[in-house]
Amino acid sequence: MFIAIEGIDGAGKSTQARLLVRWLDQQGRSAVLCRDPGSTDLGEEVRKLLLASRHQIGAKAQMLLYMAARAQMVDELIAPTLYKRKAIVVCDRYVLSNVVYQGYGCGLDPEVIWQVGQVATGGVMPQLTIVLDLEVHTAQQRLQGPRDRIETLGQDFFQRLVEGYRQEAQRHSHNIVLVPADRSVEEIHQEICQLVQSRLLHPRKEDS
Ligand code: ADP
Questions:
Q1: Sheet (strand 128-133) strand order
Q2: Is the overall model pTM greater than 0.85, yes or no?
Q3: I want to staple 207 with a disulfide (CB 3.0 to 4.6 A). Which of 99, 163, 194, 203 is the partner?
Q4: Which domain holds residue 124?
Q5: Of 13, 14, 15, 188, which is best to mutate to test ligand 1, by the most ligand atoms within 8 angstroms of its C-beta?
Q6: Is the shortest distance between the CB of 141 and ligand 1 below 6 Å?
């Protein structure tokens, strides 16, 4: 099973992804944690390139760089984990991040980004995507040094991301689920465990 954790910066993705992997291990289910971009040598290099503020990278180039890193991660890590080891993958961000950030945030066509995502991943997509839904100001308060990021990208940008995640969850309600994230780490973790449990115990055909 392939699970992605999504949401704006500071929503709690890496916290919840780590807890979910630990819980799955406790259930006797082998699970691998990965982060997108990253988790491969190429991915970590691309991550550095994208996050280095000295580069001015246009939205389309950004999206394609993320996709290149992701293609490598699918080949090296995700596909072997899912199909050879038959283990669970929990990924901190995936294609939906590009749909929301470069699509809703920067004005590229979300549908085109989904299509590029299909090509980059060879159709290896999560059965379940959990979006940690949080208002911008709460997420910013959680981040250290939030000013830098807000000043660079602006409040409106992050608001478009929140709306983008909500719209995509509505459009793909069969596999993208919003989880309210303005709660304690433990409460959110419990809800995520229940969601995953119900999918693991009662998988639809395409989820197994
Ligand atoms: P993301 O990966 O989405 O950017 P993180 O998991 O790194 O978010 O969390 C950002 C910050 O907020 C961290 O300092 C983390 O400890 C804190 N945090 C995460 N979840 C919660 C929560 N539910 N309530 C309060 N603080 C949280």
A1: 31-35, 88-92, 2-6, 128-133, 176-180
A2: yes
A3: 203
A4: 2-207
A5: 15
A6: no
